[in-house]
Amino acid sequence: MSTQNKGLAARFGVPPLTEVRRTTAAVLVDTVGVGLMIPISLLYFTLTTDIPVAELGVALTAATLLSLPAGLAGGAMTDRFGPKLAMVTNNLVSAAGYVLYLLADGLATAFLAMLLVAIADRMYWACWSSYVHTLSGGRPFERWFAFLESIKAGAMGLGAILATVILAAGTDAGARWLVVLNIATCVAAALLFVLQPMSPPADDAAAAGGEDDEDPELLQAVRGWRTAFAGRANRLFVIGQVLLSPVMLLPSVALPLLFVERWDMPVYVSTLLFALNTGIAALIQTPLSHAVRFRSRAGVICFSAGLLSASLLLMAAMPERQSALAWCVVVVVGVVLAVVDALYMPASNALMTESVPDAVRGRTVAVFQTAAAVGMAVFPACFGFVFEFSSALTWVLLAAVIAAGGLCFAAAAARLPHAVRFPEFRKTDEATAGAPESLAGSQ
Fold first, then answer.
1. Are residues 88 and 230 in the same domain?
2. Which residue has the higher pLDDT, 367 or 160?
3. 219 within a domain of the structure (yes/no)
4. Who's near 10: CB < 8 A, 6+ residues apart?
5. Is 262 a domain residue?
6. Looking at residues 188-193, what average pLDDT do you find?
7. Which residue has the higher pLDDT, 352 or 401?
8. pLDDT, position 7
9. What DSSP assignment string belongs to 15-84?
């Protein structure tokens, strides 16, 4: 890499690509596959089978709920065998699930396919932050996380465009080809993750609640889970994850209902909002994370929560009918969601990942991510109930919930060491940053 290119990389916070080229390729390939399947994950079975939509909806809900323990199992696998094996495993399980998509001819097979894909998804989120932490090798977490997340956002948009083209050429056959391509991307990503060199994690067993290597393995495992669930900071992270989980579903569940059902906008407004969210996030995530690298992570999360809450309160004040400025609102909301994603995701994952000891990082992060999954499972039902009563009240309550989630992260981070609360330090802060790191789970 030339000196000029190195300067540009440092300026925009891009990590050295020579170190992560296989992971970058794996993320790109894997997420293109995700983008291929997003438009038809449930629609596929209505195109290729005679299963009623109501039964498919029940099956998907059941599969999602039954998959929740898989996230905890993925965290245990991460601690026992490392995040690299967990990443490979979740891709192979996902490929197996999509093979069953091709073979599905009844509700039982379709349910099993959905369950395997949901299990792979839970495992992915349980090990992804730990994988990035290990990949970063002690360097700023946000720089690596934001870069890979920007690759994911762009790849997901590319996959959605490819899916549109393939489905336009033939609906039923095109849907099957999308599944075949997604199986190929899962297997290819697993192979690339295998080939990515990873430095072995530091031995932090002693920090994980005082575990003794001579204790039976089962006793060590029990102590590890106790550490994952214990501590004021960990409990606040769990509550914060539940309260902030609607952020992930606003562009796909909540806002499309407002725009289409109450404002009488065309259905394709939902795809436009998705494209704006992912496209802008792909462009700004890395430079924006780099720009706030000297800010506290909790402060960044609170700013993101406050920005989104203020936007939702403005939505509550708007009339429940199509406005002349409706399309402007869609664009502004898409930009706000992209900025919030670009700031909140790296900072929150960094706090949760770096505040726990290495020996139980996988299990603890799995607990945090499972809390978010529970919140996302509950949110649609709660949203639908309140939205039917009053859309204005819906946005007010959502604003309050999201603001409370940001405050939970701030309270959790208050007693963490300086080195965990801040991603990078100016030279004047280095003396403060050198304080020994305490553990969230032991507080």
1. no
2. 367
3. no
4. none
5. yes
6. 94
7. 401
8. 53
9. --HHHHHHHHHHHHHHHHHHHHHGGGTTHHHHHHS---HHHHHHHHHHHHHHTHHHHHHHHHHHHHH-HH
Total domains in the fold of the chain: 2
The answer to whether residue 1 is domain-embedded is no
Contact 104, 49 (CB under 8 A): yes
What digits encode the pLDDT tens for the residues 121-164? 999 988 898 898 888 877 778 788 888 888 888 888 888 888 87
**pLDDT digit string, tens, across residues 290-305:** 888 888 899 999 999 9
Q: Based on the number of CB atoms within 10 Å of its own CB, is 285 exposed (0-12), middle (13-18) or buried (19 or more)?
A: buried
Question: Are 171 and 230 members of one domain?
Answer: no
Angle (CA) 113-118-121 rounded to 5° is 130
Residues 6+ apart with CB under 8 A from 80: 362
Tell which residue, 16, 24, 38, 68, has the closest CA to residue 278.
38
DSSP type of residue 263 = T
Is 126 within 8 Å of 74 (Cβ atoms)?
A: yes
Range of the domain at 105: 12-199
Q: Which amino acid is at 77?
A: M
Q: Are 32 and 158 in contact (CB under 8 A)?
A: yes
> What number of H helices and E strands is found in the chain?
20, 0
pLDDT digits (tens, 9 = 90+) for 380-415: 888 888 888 888 899 999 999 999 999 999 999 988
* Cα–Cα distance for residue pair 380/163, rounded to 1 Å: 26
What is the model's pTM? 0.77
Q: Do 246 and 254 form a contact (C-beta atoms < 8 A)?
A: yes
Rounded CA gap, 309 and 322, in Å? 22
Q: Which segments of 318-360 does DSSP mark as H helices, in order?
A: 326-354
Under 8 Å between Cβ of 40 and 163? yes
Closest CA to 235 of 374, 89, 409: 409
pLDDT at 134: 86
Measuring CA to CA, which residue among 310, 313, 300 is closest to residue 409? Answer: 300
209/410 Cα distance (integer angstroms): 24
Are 349 and 145 in contact by the 8 Å Cβ rule? The answer is: yes
Contact (Cβ atoms closer than 8 angstroms) between residue 141 and residue 349: yes
Say whether 6 sits in a helix, a strand or coil.
Answer: helix
The residues, any chain, with a CB within 8 Å of residue 425's CB and separated by 6 or more, are 294, 418, 432, 433
Which of 199, 214, 237 finishes a domain? 199
In a domain, 195, yes or no: yes
Do the beta carbons of residue 15 and residue 144 sit within 8 Å?
yes
Task: Tell me the CATH number at 377.
Answer: 1.20.1250.20
